[in-house]
């Protein structure tokens, strides 16, 4: 099957499938990131502003990463470095450039860095899944030769016209792996505990797939006998896992401290509502002097009335006795 890397011509200039797929992945990624930003209470328009910085830095990073490890190809023709339309971009370089852009943008806009990379991570991995099909049209990023005719069929293998051979379709393997990671991140981001976890899971899962698939490719960048992408993937697997555990433990410890403080506050409020018994002896209340004086006056009047009536009764008795005599 003949595969033409040129989709069509526009004003006499070829338009490549690779460029079309990259443009589609960028547009879809921006749309998804804007929706997720809104869910996290960020202005969706800031994603567009971020992309205006991240896309150029990502392209520069992808190109420099490739050129550094292929310097023998460019050292005699340094002007060829800017000819990115001829190929030569590395995804890890694009990720590094994007992280630099995220660091600059988050400080400029006073935004949480971890929230920003969480927002764009699903879009990034989906863009990688779509972009890998550009390798299919360019007949690149393929794997080992497949000599067994029983396995010379797509999607396990792809026919490379320039070599007149069947090779493992490693671009397809990675595209499918990236798609699975994207679907997982869509579900995981609903359950994230703290900011940064979506990005760290992206790094971990993508690197796990890349470290395996890179070992099957025939066009890897090398540092001596070591495949650069495999080495970097292994480092990122360990680094992302360690950061995930540390940040999760720190979040758990902070949550426990806050819970203890809340319990202490609630206990203190409960104690204040209950009156505690006093250790001081109870002081008897002083009698009301006005009440006592009124009672004395009443008793005094009663006594006076009793003393005054007694003589009157004696006089009447004497007079009665005199009459009898």
Count up the helices: 9
SSE succession:
EEHHHHHEEHHEEHH
> If strands are numbered along the chain, what order do they take across the biggest sheet?
1-2
From the N-terminal CA to the C-terminal CA, the straight-line distance is: 170 Å
Residue share in helix: 55-70%
Rg from Cα: 45 Å
Total domains: 1
Judged by helices, strands and strand pairing, the structural class is mainly alpha
Mean pLDDT: 85
Describe the largest sheet.
2 strands, antiparallel
Unreliable runs: 297-312, 317-325
Number of strands: 6
Strand content: 5-15%
Shape, per Cα inertia axes:
elongated
List the helices and strands and how they pair.
Elements: E1 6-10, E2 13-16, H1 17-39, H2 45-69, H3 71-74, H4 91-108, H5 113-138, E3 157-160, E4 165-168, H6 170-188, H7 197-213, E5 222-223, E6 226-227, H8 228-273, H9 289-324
Antiparallel strand pairs: 1-2, 3-4, 5-6
């Amino acid at each position: 099957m003949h595969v033409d890397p040129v989709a069509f011509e526009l004003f006499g200039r070829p338009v490549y499938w690779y460029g079309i797929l990259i443009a589609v992945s960028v547009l879809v990624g921006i749309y998804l990131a804007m929706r997720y930003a809104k869910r996290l209470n960020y202005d969706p328009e800031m994603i567009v502003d971020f992309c205006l910085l991240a896309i150029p830095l990502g392209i520069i990073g992808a190109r420099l990463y490739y050129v550094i490890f292929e310097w023998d190809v460019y050292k005699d023709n340094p002007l060829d470095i800017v000819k990115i339309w001829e190929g030569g971009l590395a995804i890890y370089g694009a990720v590094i450039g994007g992280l630099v852009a995220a660091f600059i943008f988050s400080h400029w806009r006073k935004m949480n860095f971890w929230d920003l990379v969480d927002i764009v991570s699903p879009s990034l991995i989906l863009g990688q899944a779509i972009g890998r099909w550009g390798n299919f049209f360019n007949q690149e990023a393929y794997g080992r030769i497949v000599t067994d005719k029983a396995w010379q069929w797509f999607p396990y293998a792809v026919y490379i016209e320039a070599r007149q051979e069947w090779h493992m379709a490693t671009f397809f393997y990675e595209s499918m792996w990236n798609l699975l990671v994207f679907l997982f991140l869509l579900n995981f981001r609903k359950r994230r505990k703290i900011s940064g976890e979506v990005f760290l899971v992206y790094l971990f899962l993508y690197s796990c797939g890349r470290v395996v698939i890179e070992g099957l490719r025939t066009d890897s960048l090398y540092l001596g006998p070591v495949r650069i992408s495999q080495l970097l993937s292994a480092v990122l697997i360990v680094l992302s896992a360690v950061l995930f555990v540390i940040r999760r433990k720190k979040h758990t410890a902070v949550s426990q401290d806050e819970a203890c403080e809340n319990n202490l506050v609630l206990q203190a409020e409960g104690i204040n509502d209950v009156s505690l018994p006093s250790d001081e002896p109870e002081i008897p209340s002083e009698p009301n002097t006005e009440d006592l004086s009124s009672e004395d006056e009443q008793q005094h009047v009663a006594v006076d009335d009793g003393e005054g009536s007694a003589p009157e009764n004696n006089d009447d008795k004497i007079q009665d006795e005199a009459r009898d005599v």
